[in-house]
Amino acid sequence: MTSGDVSGATLFLTIVRHRKSEILWIEANGIEVRKLDYTQPPPLTEGEIESFLKEARTARFCSLNKDGTIHAAPVLFRHENGQIMIITPAASRKAKNVKRNGKVSILIDTEQPPPRGVLIYGKAELRYPRTRDEYLTEATRVYEKYMPRERAECMAQGMYKITQGVEIIVKPKHIVSFDYSKDAVYPTA
Q1: How many CB atoms lie within 10 A of CB 40?
Q2: Pairing outcome for strands 70-75 and 116-127
Q3: Pair (18, 66) in one structural domain
Q4: Would the pTM of this model clear 0.90, i.e. be above it?
Q5: Sheet harboring 103-109: ordered strands across?
Q6: Which bin fits 19, alpha (ψ -120 to 50), beta or left (φ > 0)?
Q7: Domain range enclosing 95
Q8: Are 15 and 52 found together in one domain?
Q9: Are residues 152 and 117 in the same domain?
Q10: pLDDT, tens digit, for every residue of 38-67?
Q11: Which residues pair with 125 in a beta bridge?
């Protein structure tokens, strides 16, 4: 708390800090003057990230189009051994972009407030299944996160019948997480 004299009146300032140097808000004589100039809320812990990636539903997969624009698409995914696996048609925009430039970003977040999520910056590679059974096994492993195994197997078989599939494997280079439920300011903003 700091005090000073302004035109004969005493001014009491309370400065609330987050992460040592970032000022979140200032109170002047008990009246709050907000300053939300920080951009990153508290992160998830490593354990929370692991749990979140196992529970999370839809990811947003971002890759670079030939013309330099960003292609963003919702995808089903599986998180295993520190990597993200996605099944997609080999002729999809995602696969074509990864083939040309493997730099990708994936956002996996909650759909309800308070926002929580993980943003992965990584290098993607295409892996073409060698056999029908290999494709069905990998596709089923991704789909069964979202539905019962029997239905996941049916979906994988149906996709195999209509298109050649490819697995996109993303190896994270940098991970950023956020959890606004841990933020002291967000709920009152």
Answers
A1: 12
A2: unpaired
A3: no
A4: no
A5: 70-75, 59-64, 103-109, 116-127, 165-179, 83-89, 78-80
A6: left
A7: 46-181
A8: no
A9: yes
A10: 567 889 999 999 999 998 788 999 999 999
A11: 169
